[in-house]
Amino acid sequence: MLTQARHSMIQEYVDQRGLCRVAELCELTNSSESTIRRDLIQMEEDGIIRRVHGGAQSIKNFSHDVSQHVRFSLNHEAKVAIAKYAVENHVHANDNIFIDAGTTTYEMVQFLANIPGLTVVTNGMETALASLNHGIKTILLGGTVKTDTHAVVGQTAMQQIKAMNFSASFIGANGIDVQGFLTTPDIEEAAIKRAELVQANQAYVLTDASKIGERSFAIFGNASDTVVICNQLTLRQKRILPEKILLEEVTE
Does the keyword DNA-binding apply (predicted)? Predict the structure, then answer.
């Protein structure tokens, strides 16, 4: 297959899905991993896609939700480092915390098992199961489960959140734009995230550097009302964010 034809195929596939893995592109184009990685480097230089750890991301202005197995695999090392830092610095004995259905927040669970008296409230199916498997007292919200992100949403879940107060909420975001707005592709998930933020003594947004400067469809808050925890940013990424944001950078 000619390089130009392969690039066109890759661009169309990535734009349709928002995020994808190198292995998927190898299968799609019947190419080796080294060929695909060279393609992605060239396509990023040409401004066609954005490379992320383990794959590629669309550069379209409005991102959309992608399948859960892809989201868990992208930027995994950064997500684990961010989650570990959040637990070690912001979760305490006897806390009641909300962990939402993000893939970075999910990684917190493995570090929570030895914290006494902890209660985890979540709208994430995977997070609830992992928490139970680690022997942590767990409350899973009721409501409608989204097929793509396995997040529980809807009025029932909203009412339950509004009846609780949290020591802290740990929230995922698909983008933090130049005005500090926190965004996610889905309106119903945005409503849950907004409620988590309001009901918490302190809200923490856990996101990797690839989300800085990005914007999705639904706004659920502003980073100025939270502490943003992410992996180390470049100078350009720091300049994208408003000056007054509380930012904690994690060294992987």
Answer: yes
Residue 64 confidence (pLDDT) above 60? no
| Confidence grade of residue 214 (pLDDT, cut at 50, 70, 90) | confident
Least Cα distance to 87 among 134, 150, 140 occurs for 134
* Cβ atoms of 136 and 114 closer than 8 Å: no
pLDDT of residue 62: 46
What is the b/e burial string over 111-146, where b = at least 16 CB atoms within 10 angstroms of the residue's CB? bbeebeebbbbbbbbbbbebbeebebebebbebebb
Q: Is the pLDDT of residue 220 over 90?
A: yes
Six-digit token string for 6: 């392969």
Query: Does pTM top 0.85 for this prediction?
Result: no
Domains of the chain in start order, with CATH, are 3-62 (1.10.10.10), 69-250 (3.40.50.1360)
**What are the start-end ranges of the H helices in the chain?**
3-17, 22-29, 33-45, 68-73, 76-90, 103-106, 125-133, 155-162, 187-198, 235-240
Q: How many CA atoms lie within 13 A of 77 on its CB side?
A: 6
Q: How far is CA 211 from the centre of its chain?
A: 8
